[in-house]
Amino acid sequence: MATPRIPAALLLFASASMAQAQPLNTIPARTTSVTPFSGCAAWDELDDLLRTVKKEEDQTPRSVYSRIAKVKSEKAFLTLRKAVAMLRDPSPLYDAYSAFQEFEGTELESSALDYLKNEALKARRDPNKKGATRALERWGLKAENELTAILESRADDELKSIAIRPLISRLGERGDSDSLTLLLRYGPTGRRAGDQLKTALEKARGSEVLALYEDVLSHKNTGVDRRKMLLEVLASWKDTDANRLIAARLRDSDPDIVVRALEILGVSNDPQWTEPISKLLRSKDDAILRDAILAMGRLSKADEMWVDQLFALADDKNPVARMGAAAALLELRSAQAVDILHSLLADEDWRVRSEALQQVGNLRREISIPVLIERLDAESGRIGHDVATVLRLMTGEDHGRTGRRWNQWWNDQGQDYRLPSYEDALALDKERSSRRQDNKSQASFYGLEIVSDRIMFIIDQSGSMAAPAGRNRSRGAGGGPTRLDVATKEFGRALAALADGIEFNVIFFETGVKAWKKELLNLDEDVRAEATEYAGETSPAGGTNVYGALLEAYEDERIDTIYLLTDGGPSAGEITDTNEIRRRILRLNRTRRVVIHCISIGTPSPFLRELARENGGSYTESL
Fold it and tell me: What domains can be seen in the chain, in order of their start residue?
């Protein structure tokens, strides 16, 4: 049975028609007969509700639309359509269109579906089309015919990407070329919906499917997320033809695709892929070089010439090559490989030491314990913290952050000592976590503990940071602090709690990005005062250039931990797409190994939550 690996996160760490909409005073021809509604009170209520919509327009409470539809009469149906005609903004339009679902199971069900389809295809305004399509999505397979009509129409791609969501499983079951083409073109690739799409595509096999996938993978307009998802689908085939198509992506222009192809081929147990992979050992892209070495290590464990080359790579002048060698040595697991892996724990480059430490933790050998204990007193900051973490997760013990207590414990163990399982050690560590206060630094930033001694703070000073902090909604004299006021105060408080000698820097960003100093500074009384004063002089303005700020932080190769604070999504700079930012930072971190902690101000941020999770950090909110 394979030994469970220590999760990386413990260490470091997806031309519409312009035809006129149907008149409001008619019900589509598809309508079945309904029983006329004669309740005068309900008629009066519908008129009152419509007058409310006419008066409030887009500010109408959403409950009004539901109250109209719940009457479930022909007049209610027509009243709701009239209400739609009075709305302009996307959100209230969606609420009103969604209310038509109240007619599900009634004699007006087919009329409601027809109306929503016609709005999606023929409304004059895009917000109407999108709102109606999203409302149909809520019906699921009940609206299969209407959703299919949208997919087969000249509607724009955004509408089709909405319409296809409830149909993913059904199209996957069909498995014909037309259905697969629709899935490949419009199917969502996000984290949850992407898994559903992947499952649907995995059901289809054969040469025609393979040819279709090849066309999609090689097409210049196919996005990275879609191509990566297709590689996952092909990996599930576990056959030579699929792997040949994956191997072709080793020549892809996008490094993310090359790296994913290397990961898949590396675990294929098929040595025929070593030749194309070996060509990437000369790559100048750090992530590709590291993963090419790892893939070769997995496929060539029995090749003596490769083993000699791997041992040489462990002494290569390029630290990225040494990192790749550390990962590949774990696959080899020979006595000599373990000795070399241990030696890399003392490498001159902290990134190599971090990589080797993670692999030693994954190896889980008793012989590594005294080596790790020796490293405790040689490391500080985050790497020292990580050494202690690996020791705890290997032994199930906790003897602090110094080698003396660990040596005392180790000397008491006999030759028959055996490591507990990873699961047992992890359970013990979780039980102790609330009682390890003596091992925790007193310094924190927005409640996130600071264990590193090479830190970069990244603080948003965009225009939105002028908003009142927390629940304070007043401004002006005596109106209370802004978000930026609180952030700079918290920054000063963190510096006051950090020990002298800690190395740090701070970046404030808006549309532009500016680091306080060119490189990390040693903290002392004067530097602490200067940094606090500098932070207090900042003022909010401009957009939110998150990607630019992160890249600026990565310019200093010595930092190992980032604290990123922002109150909004990226809106300025080279890249504002959150998926693309995450993808690029994750690729950088394959060899940079920087932990990224994230603080979201004012509102929850799925983007920041994922950015922290993918890069070994923690996420918190200050709402």
Answer: 40-154 (no CATH), 444-622 (3.40.50.410)
